């Protein structure tokens, strides 16, 4: 099945169907129509998979996907143009350009936590770049996967863009094929499997993974505003099931009690006295992840650190927003990515110590800082390696199409969003064009001392050597 799918797409790509700007624009416009006409279907699927609140579905998935399509449509013609670049003195006279060309047939493996947005957004980049595409949605979000498999062929060119559903078996079969690029969003564990499979064919890979995203909170902030932003970035992003959601907070010992009290007040205003009954909180994706999360806090030395929340409802797969204070660093909660509604607070003596603490862990996908201290801000930007960072807010950097979104180290490789999505699925081909003039005899053997002198001068940028070379010195017969 997978082999046949790839063969069909290679045939379409080889025929040149995906290369014209008109084809690319038509597919992007079709995606905009799909989003407009099927918003109710998309919202229903997201609710089936994650009990995702309708407003959250619109803000974080539907509207962002539509904006991404429109951004690509507006930029497409300019992105496709060859970029003229200077030619070197050693190739004078000549012209040079960088020509963007599609990679070919690409595989996109999506994630379950934002199953619509994380499927469509890379597809937009692949289409804009002129590729044929296979989308493999996550089987852990079956309603969205089924919806994409049904609706996409109704809107886009199904000879060039295909959806393949299934689980581990189907994904494994897809990974056995030769692709021109693989784009994977998900866990580091599966990311390593994808990378190993790609290595067999020397296939380039973009990995959008995760990590423990830290939030430094200084004591000089507007605490009410900061806490609201942290709360909506944690629990308002799929109840913490987001790769860019805050994973833990770092603050000073002296400021922690005030921060905890403020978080408690904001959470009660957001989600009520019984957050398990709130319709504004997503549920945990499935029983396996529910079990994983509950086990993280069952250990006594973790459970006793809960200062707010902790309620669960296994039948409905609900876990309430939970705050913990000074959990031991050697626990599973503090060593692995949480990807759920727990938010531990780590305390330090001085806020400046937080940077060193972050750097004892693997490089995060996102890092956040709340402060009015410009020196701390400069040190944070300069000394914390992260896929991206945001000062005095959470998660909003992903909404700027002029910023690349991607990880570093364990949090991923490669980036996308906006033009970076186009670049992700494009080969930038170097093209140098010369005529038959400007023949420099010094470049050809035998390499006499005179020729070597002129060649060395050319390489070192000597104008005199260039004139001598163009005049044909040293003279020699044909």
TrEMBL record:
SUPFAM superfamilies: ALDH-like (SSF53720)
KW NAD (keyword) present: yes
Active site: 208, 243
Keyword Oxidoreductase carried by entry: yes
Gene Ontology MF terms in the entry: aldehyde dehydrogenase (NAD+) activity
Catalytic activity: an aldehyde + NAD(+) + H2O = a carboxylate + NADH + 2 H(+)
Top-rank lineage group of the source organism: Eukaryota
Keyword field: NAD, Oxidoreductase
Domain Aldehyde dehydrogenase residue range list: 3-431
A Pfam cross-reference name: Aldedh
One GO term of the biological process aspect: response to abscisic acid
Family: Belongs to the aldehyde dehydrogenase family.
Name of the molecule in the record: Aldehyde dehydrogenase
Provenance organism: Urochloa decumbens
């Amino acid at each position: 099945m997978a082999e046949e799918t790839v063969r069909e797409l290679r045939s379409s790509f080889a025929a040149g169907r995906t290369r014209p700007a008109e084809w690319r624009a038509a597919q992007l416009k079709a995606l905009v129509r799909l989003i407009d006409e099927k918003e109710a279907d998309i919202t229903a699927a997201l609710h089936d998979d994650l009990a995702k609140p309708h407003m959250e579905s619109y803000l974080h998935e539907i509207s962002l996907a539509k904006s991404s399509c429109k951004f690509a449509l507006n930029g497409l013609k300019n992105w496709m143009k060859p970029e003229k670049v200077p030619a070197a003195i050693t190739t004078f006279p000549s012209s040079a350009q960088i020509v963007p060309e599609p990679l070919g047939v690409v595989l996109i493996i999506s994630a379950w936590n934002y199953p619509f947005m994380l499927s469509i957004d890379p597809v937009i980049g692949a289409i804009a770049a002129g590729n044929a595409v296979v989308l493999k949605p996550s089987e852990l979000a079956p309603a969205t996967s089924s919806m994409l498999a049904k609706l996409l062929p109704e809107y886009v060119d199904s000879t060039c863009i295909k959806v393949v559903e299934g689980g581990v078996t189907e994904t494994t079969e897809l990974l056995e094929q030769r692709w021109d690029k693989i784009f994977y969003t998900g866990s580091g564990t599966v990311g390593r499997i994808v990378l190993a499979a790609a290595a067999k064919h020397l296939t380039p890979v973009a990995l959008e993974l995760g990590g423990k995203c830290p939030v430094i909170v200084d004591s000089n902030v507007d605490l009410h505003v900061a806490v609201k932003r942290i709360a909506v970035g944690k629990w308002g992003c799929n109840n913490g099931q987001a790769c860019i959601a805050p994973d833990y907070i770092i603050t000073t010992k002296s400021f922690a009690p005030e921060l905890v009290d403020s978080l408690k007040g904001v959470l009660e205003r957001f989600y009520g006295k019984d957050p398990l009954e709130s319709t504004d909180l997503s549920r945990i994706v499935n029983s396996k992840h529910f079990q994983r999360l509950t086990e993280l806090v069952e250990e006594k030395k973790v459970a006793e650190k809960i200062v707010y929340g902790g309620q669960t409802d296994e039948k409905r797969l609900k876990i309430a927003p939970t705050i913990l204070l000074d959990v031991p660093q050697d626990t599973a909660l503090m060593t692995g990515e949480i990807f759920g509604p727990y938010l531990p607070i780590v305390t330090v003596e001085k806020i400046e110590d937080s940077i060193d603490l972050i750097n004892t862990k693997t490089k995060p996908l996102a890092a956040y800082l709340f402060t009015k201290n410009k020196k701390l801000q400069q040190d944070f930007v300069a000394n914390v390696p992260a896929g991206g960072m945001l000062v005095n807010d959470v998660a909003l950097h992903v909404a700027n199409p002029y910023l690349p979104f991607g990880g570093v180290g364990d949090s991923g490789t490669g980036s996308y969003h906006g033009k970076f999505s186009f670049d992700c699925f494009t080969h930038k081909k170097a093209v140098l064009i010369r005529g038959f003039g400007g023949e420099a005899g010094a470049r050809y053997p035998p390499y006499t001392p005179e020729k070597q002198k002129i060649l060395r001068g050319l390489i070192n940028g000597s104008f005199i050597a260039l004139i001598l070379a163009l005049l044909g010195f040293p003279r020699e017969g044909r």
